[in-house]
Design brief:
Shape: elongated
Number of helices: 3
Low-confidence stretches: 28-67
Radius of gyration: 24 Å
Strand order of the largest sheet: 1-5-6-7-4-3-2
Order of helices and strands: HHEHEEEEEE
Helix content: 25-40%
Number of domains: 2
Distance between the termini: 74 Å
Number of strands: 7
Length: 157
């Protein structure tokens, strides 16, 4: 009698797990095929609008939500910084180059024993441009670009 009840209980558990998995799969697949036409504001799905355009949804190019420093992007202010200021700051920096197992060169920027930034690729500082700079709680975070693509960052204290 006990074995019969136990086997029925286990069978019911397995069936409920299978039904739950199938239901979860359908929910994820329906949300993932959402197109830009299905959004009320025409900007794509809600997640795209929230994380790409910010919480306020102004639909303009703004600050990213997270800047890698543990603070939210909409609390940061964009600042103007010249390429000469960045090059002057980089003159005091030591560089540690290493190659990842996939063959990508990474330049680690070190100032006073602390890592203040990284550049992915074997670029000379004179060939890099300042993409954007943000005033954060820890200093000014500068994003460096090469031909319009961000290749690294630097934290100026």
């Amino acid at each position: 009698m006990r074995k019969g009840l136990l086997s029925i209980g286990l069978l019911a558990l397995v069936v409920s797990l299978v039904i739950g998995t199938v239901a979860a799969y359908h929910v994820v697949s329906e949300n993932s095929v959402q197109t830009t036409d299905s959004c009320v504001c025409g900007c794509g799905c809600y997640t795209h609008a929230r994380y790409m355009y910010g919480q306020n949804g102004n639909h303009e190019r703004g600050t990213p939500q997270f800047m890698g420093l543990g603070v939210k992007g909409h609390y940061l202010g964009e600042v103007e910084i010249d390429k000469e200021q960045v090059e002057e700051y980089l003159s005091n920096v030591t560089i540690e180059k290493f190659v990842t197992p996939r063959g990508v060169t990474v330049q680690k920027l070190i100032l006073d024993g602390q890592c203040i930034g990284k550049i992915v690729g074997d670029y000379d500082f004179s060939s890099l441009d300042v993409y954007k700079a943000y005033n954060t709680q820890n200093g000014i975070k500068v994003f460096l670009s090469y031909n319009g693509s961000i290749v690294g960052f630097l934290l100026m204290k």
